[in-house]
Amino acid sequence: MFEELIVAKDKAEESSRLKTDFLQYMSHEVRTPLNAIIGFSQILDNLPELQEKHKKYTTIIKESSIKLLNIINDVIEISQISSKHSKLRLSEFDLESLIHELKNKYENQAKDKDIYFHLDLQLVKPHLIIRTDKEKLTRILEHLLDNSLKFTPVGSILLSCSQEGKKLLFSIVDSGIGIDKSMQEAIFEPFRQVESGKTRSYGGNGLGLSIVKEYISLLKGDLSLQSEINKGTKISFSIPIDDEYGTDIGQENEDAISILIAEDEESNFIYLQEILRPSRIKVIRAKNGQEALDTCRNNENISLIIMDIKMPVMDGITSAKLIKEFRPDMPIVAQTAFALPSEVKQYAGIFNEYLTKPILQYQITNLINKYL
Description:
5-stranded parallel sheet; Rossmann fold; Heat Shock Protein 90; 5-stranded mixed sheet; about 45% helix; alpha/beta; 10 helices
């Protein structure tokens, strides 16, 4: 009997490992082509000679790809949460910059729907550097803002952020369709939605709020909801922050000359090169980690490296470690289709930060502003 239990335990652990491996590789294999699809759609969209109707087509391609990516993200996130593989990864970052990135993103989306998006930011000092899990905080806010935008046909959305001692307080208030009292607890369960059946007016997979609840719990925060049918919804949450740091960040480097992009996929390199073209920054390419290492040894003018993780000859992690040995202050940013928290965890202490494919134009712009 005891031996049977051991065999059953081993089989369950092997099944869990295979599921994790499957999710990792599926995530990577889907993200890599999506990076090219979304990236080149953005580039086509900005061509002055492109006809208006063709711009509509590229927008549809881009938006549909992002929807597909979000579905993949949600399924992977809820799977990680269910299997207890979701861990905290604390880092230091500029809270105000994160909030303004989200504001710019959702303000444009709201404008397309004739919805007024506004921000109420009340921090004790500008450019507050906090320590928490940036990725999970970002995903919480994105899920909540996505919901507000989806369920608000007309009116406004307000994102508020303030500080109270060692706590950050957030709220998202919208004038949307609201949530019936009978659903206000159930809505945080996986796959539960305000609407059900085949005649739903709004899409979605019903995972966003359950991910929000689990992430806030993981961050040792508190969550509350107030809502009334046809009058709107207010979701508030608070999270503790470990520490406050200085306010001086992102100094400009007047000697910045070159960016090294380590990328073996031709389409991904061309996409990044096109994004960087207007900046007139010199772009150098390495097709594998060994080339990146050799190039960095021989070129003192490289001021930033964007490093792919999965490459032939030498992988990006090994290459970054070796580069940091002789150029410890070199900012190296990982770009990867491996996006699960367990995978990203191994980047800590090696890369300054990471970008998950598909990479959007504004993310590259933010890198240039921050490091160059």
